[in-house]
Every structure is written in C-alpha cells, then in structure tokens.
Amino acid sequence: MRVPLDREPWRVRGFLGDEWRHHRVWGPLREPDAWLPATVPGSVVDDLWRANAVPDPYVGLNTRAIEWVSDRHWAYRHEFRLEPPPPGQQAFLCLDGVDHSAFVYLDGTELGRVDGMFVAIRFDVTELVRTSAEHTLVVVVEPTPVSEPQVGHTAKVRVHKSRMTYGWDFCPRLVHQGIWQSVYVELTGPARITDLTVTADRVLVGAPGNDHVELTLTDADGVIVATGDRALEVRDPRLWWPNGSGTPYLYHLTATAYADGVVSDRREYEIGFRTLRFFRADGASTDAAPYGIEVNGRRIFAKGWNWVPLDLSYGVPRPDRLRHLLDLAVDAGVNLLRVWGGGLIETPEFYAECDRRGLLVWQEFAQSSSGISSTPADDEDFVAMMRSQAEAIVPRLRHHPSLAIWGGGNELQAGEGEPLSDAPVLDALGDVVRRLDPERLWLATSPTGPAFLNRLDLIRHAPDNQHDVHGPWEHQGLRDHYALYDAGTAQLLSEFGVEGMTMPRSVAQVVPEPDRRLPTRGRPVWDHLGRWWNNEDLVQESFGHRIRDLDTLGLASQFLQRDGLQYATEAHRRRWPRCVGTLPWQFNEPFPNAWCTSAVTHTGEPKPAYYGVAAAYRPALVGAVCTRQSWASHDGLRLPLWFLSEHPLPPATVTARLLTFSGTELTTLTYKDVSADAFAGELRAATPAEPFVVDLQLIAGDFRAERRYVLTGTDFADLLDHRIEVDAELRGDQLSVRHLSGPVAPFVRIRDARPVQGDAGGWLRLSDSGFVLLPGEERTIDLRWHGAGGERVIAIDGLGLDPRERLIRCT
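Above: the chain sequence. Below: its structure as tokens.
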C-alpha cells in the first residue's frame, strides 16, 4: 500500500552554506514565519514565486534576478500522520526524484543522502514509525551541482542531470532544484513486487519471496482474460498500435504478492502487447543503423517531433498541459516523440499518457553536446555512476508499449561534425540497454554518422553518408530553403527546424509594453527571450525590408516558419522508404520565448507551423517539387508533381493550376486515373512577374487533398501592399471564413484572442491556421475550446487583410 506524502502542506526555507545544520531544521519547528508554503512535487523557484519571494520568472528579464536561488540549500519540511504498521508489515519512505541531491531526516533521525535527480531511493523506516503516529519529514536539497550551459565542454559534466536550465538557446539560465517527483510511504510485507516485463504475449513479474504472485489481466471492459503465478500468457491479445495505425489497446494488470499465505504487496499497471522490430531504409548500406520502425509486422514512417520539458520548473506537475500537448501531437498525426537528451528521463505520467495515445517514445539519457567540445567524460567514477543509474532507469520504463528507442544523448561528438559512436559512457549505457531491454533499438547518440549535418555541400559531396542527420534549424532563404530539402538523402532526419516569432498573446504576456516595437534584435528583453532564433533580418529581406510594425513582422515570420517547416517535412516524407522518418525541432518550449523554433508556445497555443507539419503528416498528400520560393522571371517553371498515400486509394485525378494573385488561371493541367506509385506529372509555365500560387488538388473516390505554394519573383514585398477583405461566421463548433474581395490571401491566421489576464486558462484547438485563401473561396475550420474560462474570443488576421484583425466572440 502506498501512502502519499505530497497531498498535504509542505514548507520550505533557504539557507546559506551549512546554516541549516546550525538551525537544526530536523528538530522542532523554529521561526515558523521564516518558512514559506511549498508543494511537492515541485521546484524551489516555483515555490518562491508563488510566495511572492521572487518576481515572475516568465516575464521580461526577471530570470536574471532569480539565478541566485540555486546556490543555496533549501530545507523542505512536512508534518504528517501515519498509523503504526501492524506486525509483519514493513514501512519504506520513498523519494522518486530529488533534483539533484539532498539529506533526508525523519523524526530527527538522518536516514541518508539522495544523489542524482533520476535516482529513486527507499529508506526502511519501519522501526521509526512503529512508536508514534505523528512524524516530521525534512529533506534538505543541496545547491545545484556545477555543470555546463549550452556552450561549453561536455567532458566537464559529471552529473546525470537535465542540462537545459543551465542556459540554452530556448531556456534562460535558472537551474532547477527541488523535490521533483513523488514522496510517499510504502507499506508491504516481506515479499515485494520489484519488476515487470511485457513481451508480445507474455507478462513476467519479479518479486523476491517464497510464496506466489497472483496475476490477473482484464481487458478494457473489465473481463478477465488471463491469470497466472509470476507469469501469464495471453493468446491472440488485442494489439497496441501507434497513432494512425490502429487503436493503442491497453489491458489492466493486477499483481498480488503473498508471503506465508498473506497479501504482502499489490500493484496495478496498464500494459499493451505489440511486437517491435527495426529495419534499414531502402538502399542503406550495412553500416547504417536500422532506423525504420516496424510495429506488429507493419512498417511505418516515423512522423515525429522533438519533445523538451514542459517547463523550466519541470518538477511542478502540469497534467492538463501535458495531456493538451500530447493531444495536439495526436491530432497532428504524430507517432513518435524524441525526448531530447538535454532534458529529462521523462516522468511516469508522460509515459502513461503516451501509452494511452499510441505515441512511440525515443528516450535519450540526459547527455548533450556543448558547442565547444561535445565528448562526454570518460573517468571511471562517471561511467560507473551512469551505468548504475541506467540499470535502475531501464527496468522502470521497459514495460511501457510506447517506449521504442533508447539513445545515449543528444549530438555527442568525437570532434566537430563527427557523431560519436564509441566512448566509455556510451559503451556502458548501450551494454545496459542491450542486456536489460534487448527489444528496443539502441542509438549511441543522435545524429549517428558518418555525417552530422543535413547541409547541401555535404549532400553533394557524399550523399550516402547522410544516415541520421540534424539541421538546419533556420530558414535558409527564399532561394535556398526548398533546394536543400529537395536534395536531401537522409535515411532519418531526426532534428531540423525553422525559427519564428511567438503568438501575440505570448508577446503581451512576457514582453513589457515599451519593448513591443521594432527592431527586436539588439534589445535586451527580446535578446533574453530567444536571441538565438531571432531572424528579423531574414524576414525583412524576404519582404523587401518594408516591414514597419511588430504585428506585420510576426505574421511574416510565421508565414515563413509554417511554409519552410511544412516543405522540409514533405520533402523527406515523399522519399519513403529511402527515408524512414522526420522529427522537426521542436514541438513545445519550456519558457515563453519571443522567438523560437517551437511549433507550440509555452502556454500551449499552436503556431501556424504546427498546422503545416500536421498537413505534411496526413495519410495521403499531393505536392510539387518547387526548388525555390523566389523565381527570376527568366527561369521558367518546371515543377515535378507527386502524391503519396499510406493506404490504397482508387484511381485518382490530380489537377495542377498556376494562378496569379488576382486569381487568374495561367495554366491548368489534369491527370486522370493515376496512382501514387506511378504518378510523374509536371507543371511547366513561364514565370509570372508578380507573386503567384501553385494550387494542387487530388480526388480519389471520396478522398480529397490539396496543397498550395505561394511563390514569387524576387521577394514577398508585394504581399504587404494587398488589401484583402475576409468575413467569418461562427456556426457551432465551426468557423466559416469567406474571401470577399482583393487578391489571394496568402496567410490567414486564426488564433486565441482572449485577454492575457484574468480567467483565461485552457486552450483553443483548430483544424488549421495560416492557410491560403483564394478569391471568392470559403474555408470551414473546426474549433474546440478545452478548459477555457472567461470570455472566449477568436481573432482572424493575416498578411494583407483589411482590417488587419477581426474579432469574433463565442457565446
């Protein structure tokens, strides 16, 4: 039985050096007013902020005023009541995660020390709790260990701790500290369930002791389908499938351990049955890793995304935001999340939610590159520590059907641009994974060699060296972005991105009003909120240096981000099965950046780029190889056409149109009775002198698909001169957007426009945003509010719209 200790009030107090020992914090409570209310699980910074002891870390430059926090000891104190356990029962105080180390006291007795944020520890407190029902628990969290920010030396890192909050391109320095996982007392008899292994049709439970372990497996309707003693077999189980391939079916397992005929321990699990294998991309050499994923005998394209911690105070549970973000991933067609190596060994809650949604997980150990040198330490103590922690971490997660891949860390390198495959710590981690979880794929790092970067000169020099590659993370410009991704030969593109400005609600929340003006580069607040990803110069260049206000800059930036990320994703997906997956960087962000590569803001609002990738992950696509966005008038257009489908389609009709921005058709081609594996159309035409649209339509029986490309001659400056009128009408859970007058609307954005302050929690989910609307056209957008309080307001804005913004209030 588990008695949680994280539901009652806790207190926290900071101390310099060993002052906490002088105050004897484990003894009777002294100076109660000096202690602040706290929550567990949680984080020190979050507790201080909610107690008004530090400024809001999510506004302006405030994190700089809070960096001192991690240099102190923080004593967490909790008084609780626990009835003495009956004879024959044992009591264990369990701490599933302290970041990063701490001393633990119960009723004035020092139990020991925790060392490592991913270390779960149990203290036998049976005798301590037998004599009384009133108890005092004190956990003294030590100052955070020395480690490296993003730019530094990986070899200097001697701890297994999240690197992100030491300072990263998408997270300011505010080093995390606190009790970040659950604390509880576990009451058991002498036999305790310690381990669970699930194979394709079999369950094995580890429990030291002489009596049996009763296993009962029930289906989703509560019907018992199998029983056993320590092991059970299931004939023809319903299979767990990843998102987009079937239902992620889960069974309920109850395991009861007995000692001398009496119940000693009982645990419950949700489990799924599936087979997992890996294959090499078509044409790959034998020295390439088998990056392709096969689930239940079916090969799937890895429609991935890179996942980072929910928040810089990642110890604070945010179950609603977690579920919301994972639901967004499901809605976008994602089937694989890479848990980036600068973040976390993700939580039990994360894995449980991924199990329920059919989201496969690529879990990296918490190691990462460091800009200057990126080779991990090789001293024996560090390697032994990492091996020991892996031996505890791997068995803890291996029963999850969502877990697919283990990685040694992010972008570890032997030298600049040389992916690391052989190092003492990676050898140790790989040995643990192969020994304790042989079903999963082990990748020493990401990317894996021989090439590191997805770069045009490297592709042309050695196309066969592009196995698993990273980058770029920036839009490459109107002439080069499409060209790079059209030339790609990667078997797996596991990290690449396009930067963009955040959504208006986030700007209003975190950027002080006086700073909401141009230019954004070189201003302290804007630099603090995402300097690495501020591409204002490229956006201005792409629009003829004619952007004069912040709102237009945001729209133009997001136009490029959506288009660039969607094209990059499609370009590699259409190469299946020579390319087996794409994972854009990055899905979410832990801090409200003003500029970032994220597709979803810190508060959970999707940017238009999210919808671009969602469109690229649809089961069937039609598209063109556009080569570039900026076409000189003398070039002439030659755009090869393509379509793909994951499922059989009836013979299809593909229509390709070239339109001026006024809506005039310059060229129309129609291909009838074509199939995805034998379609080779091409659109040819003279290049229009003004911006133009390539409009593609696919009809196959009842199935419809479309794709539109906004292209131009020199740049997109003309888009700023257009005056386009649209109207909208809300009909229940659908928003009808109509083009009333003017030329093509190249970028129509729909967004949450509720006030930042007040009762404005929850989220607005849409079926699309940032789309192209042709003259006279009407588009229907599905919308859903989730947990949203207060007045619900939707805004419609976009490039060239007049008026710039239209507000719709939802009743």
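DSSP finds 14 helices and 51 strands in the chain.
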